[in-house]
Design brief:
Elements: E1 2-4, H1 11-23, H2 35-41, E2 48-50, H3 61-71, E3 81-85, H4 93-104, E4 110-116, H5 124-127, E5 132-134, H6 140-150, H7 156-165, H8 170-178, H9 180-195, H10 199-209, H11 213-232, H12 245-254, H13 257-275, H14 280-289
Parallel strand pairs: 1-4, 1-5, 2-3, 3-4
Length: about 290
């Protein structure tokens, strides 16, 4: 089975639920109380295998051979066996051909879950032998209700931003709420963007980010949504940075609509350039050049 969805879409949670249900020995799987459930929850079940590559990066032939070795022996507890492969979309073609042999003649009572963010790298022969489940997005109102229940004492502005920023993925929203560094960084990034309306602010932003490539990539995500908010301000579309309307308003008041659009496009281009290993200072130069004088 292939579970398809972006990071923090709930693929791992769903795979874990399936695994516990399949291995459970209680009356209503997963019961959460039987020995099998307890061992699965603590990562100690001998017939639950979460396979990660031996080397960082792609799932290679050696990893597929390790999978075959696991399957060459009977389940330790004599029942079902579950294998979970995170980031299966990173599997090389050679490794997929090894996996294909397993999928063509799977051992009895063995369940394999491939977690992927895209189907593009998979061989058609692998796809044809797997059931596919695509993770669905949740409405923003549903995510907000979930966050309020999970974080009852949290600031309403942060809850609203996390629900909107997650773009349909509740676990992504929850991760954001728990990421103290994000909230500190986001505040700095939004302040720097607002100050970029001045020459001095542009210079300060360049100095700050010229040697902070990873942070710049994250900041570009925030800025893209900031310019989106500035573009739709005053309409019926809900702002993602609703708790920072002062910043959105400042951009709206000092930029023309076509200038906001140009900055939104430049932000997307900057992120794409960095993904292609473009120089951080050169990318910043190009991005700042999109700002009006």
């Amino acid at each position: 089975m292939i579970l398809l969805g972006p990071e923090d879409s709930g693929k791992s949670t769903l795979a874990d639920f399936f695994a516990r249900a399949l291995l459970c020995t209680g009356d209503q799987p997963p019961c959460g109380r039987c020995g099998s459930c307890v061992r699965a929850q603590t990562g100690n079940h001998p017939d639950l295998h979460v396979l990660t590559p031996a080397k960082e990066g792609a799932f290679r032939v050696a990893d597929a051979e390790a999978l075959q070795k696991i399957l060459s022996v009977r389940p330790y507890e004599g029942g079902r066996r579950v294998l979970i492969l995170p980031n299966a979309h990173r599997m090389t073609e050679e490794a997929q051909n090894k996996l294909l042999k397993i999928l063509e003649e799977p051992p009895s009572d063995t369940y394999i879950f491939l977690l992927a963010t895209t189907l593009a790298p998979f061989l058609p022969t692998v796809l044809s032998r797997c059931v596919q489940i695509k993770m669905d997005r949740m409405e923003e109102e549903g995510i907000l209700a979930y966050l309020k229940e999970r974080f009852p004492d949290a600031d309403s502005g942060r809850l609203g931003h996390a629900a909107a920023y997650a773009q349909g993925w509740p676990l992504r929203a929850a991760s954001l709420m728990e990421d103290a560094q994000y909230w500190e960084d986001r505040s700095r990034w939004l302040d720097l963007a607002a100050e970029a309306l001045t020459v001095r602010g542009k210079m300060e932003l360049f100095r700050y980010f010229q040697k902070r490539r990873d942070e710049l990539i994250r900041a570009l995500d925030v800025w893209e949504l900031l310019f989106r908010d500035a573009a739709v301000a005053g309409g019926n579309v809900k702002a993602i940075h609703a708790d920072r309307q002062d910043t959105v308003r400042r951009l709206r008041e000092n930029l023309k609509p076509d200038e906001v659009l140009r900055l939104w496009q430049a932000t997307q281009e900057a992120r794409a350039a960095l993904a292609q290993n473009a120089s951080c200072p050169m990318t910043l130069d190009a991005w700042l050049a999109a700002w009006p004088e």
